[in-house]
Design brief:
322 residues; alpha+beta
């Protein structure tokens, strides 16, 4: 490899931060406000099954932003009258909060870390979607015991907007699921593929499995697995992933053309192909860059081809225990 193992590990950490979330697979927007009836705020609660959040319309109280924020937090702490719903602030406490420069910062008690990944995402969704309706609050940040909050993949969770919890189609993200994926990364030489079953990944049910696979490949392997090396430039953006008649069409941006790691062109292509073909509904894969397939990838492989699984490149397949 051209890069040292230390450099690769550092790049893995960066890749994880740049990767999309699995737990989620969701895109930050620009902080637009909830559309609610005049003079009301949608206060979000979690259903008893912990599969979705539900809004209850209430009239806000307070003539200053500070008082309105205090009212909003108090509403989130209280269980609603609807027996099918519960407060999102349960099992942990809010140590402190403050509003500065249109951002609400909440510091949670350490018990927050005991929440399951799926419950934790719903808690954040309920809090953020409630509080960003208040005029003067566009973002919500969360710390735990004074330390930065990280998601189930270890990624730092930065300032959040309401749109963070809406998918591209504009649908609310409610249900969350858990799965394990068989992904193909590379070995130290960059010439072979190693298949590995991931640790359980929590993701939004509004994100397709195909897109989840591609985003996890871009994020790279788990940092603790030193035998695996990333294949795809972590700055690559997923423009679209669709499936028709057993063929998966993957559209990536120009970042895919940037050779960040010393891996062969075949490994780079078939990392995606082999990983996607592991899904039961996919038999073949075509890859485009900015919608264009009329190009020769790294002067070796025509993207006009529709690719089948290639097991000749696979060195081994291993399973990671949860």
């Amino acid at each position: 490899m051209e890069k040292t193992m230390s450099e690769i590990r550092k790049m893995r950490a960066v890749a994880l931060l740049l990767g999309c979330l699995l737990l989620t697979g969701i895109f930050a927007g620009c902080g637009k406000k909830e559309e609610t009836p005049a003079n009301t705020v949608s206060v979000y609660y979690i259903n008893k099954e912990e599969t979705k959040i539900t809004a209850v319309e209430k009239e806000p109280e307070g003539d200053t932003l500070s008082k309105q924020a205090e009212w909003g937090i108090s509403q989130l702490k209280e269980n609603p009258v609807e027996l099918s719903l519960r407060s999102p602030i349960s099992g942990f406490a809010i140590n402190s909060w403050n509003v500065k420069d249109d951002q609400l910062v909440l510091d949670m008690s350490v018990e927050y870390k005991k929440l399951s990944p799926s419950s934790e995402v719903l808690v954040r969704a309920a809090i953020v979607r409630t509080m960003t309706q208040l005029e003067g609050i566009s973002y919500v940040s969360v710390t735990v015991g004074g330390e930065a909050l990280t998601d189930s993949l270890g990624n730092v969770v930065g300032p959040m907007t309401a749109d963070l919890f809406i998918d591209n189609a504009g649908n609310e993200i409610n249900a969350y699921e858990k799965t394990r994926l068989l992904l193909y990364f590379t070995n130290e030489s960059g010439e072979r593929l190693i298949g590995v079953q991931t640790k359980p990944v929590v993701y939004s049910s509004n994100i397709s499995m195909e897109k989840l696979v591609v985003e996890r490949l871009i994020a790279g392997p788990d940092a603790e697995n030193e035998e695996l090396y990333p294949v795809i430039n972590p700055a690559t953006k997923v423009l679209g992933v669709t499936v028709k008649d057993g063929t998966c069409y993957v559209n990536l941006d120009n970042g895919f053309l940037t050779q960040t790691y010393n891996v062969s062109a075949e490994v780079q292509i078939y990392s995606i192909v082999n990983s996607l073909v592991e899904l039961s509904n996919i038999n073949k894969v075509q890859i485009a860059v900015n919608g264009n397939t009329d190009m020769i990838f790294r002067e070796k492989i025509s993207l006009s081809n529709v690719f089948d699984r290639n097991l000749d490149l696979v060195y081994e397949t291993e399973e990671l225990q949860s």
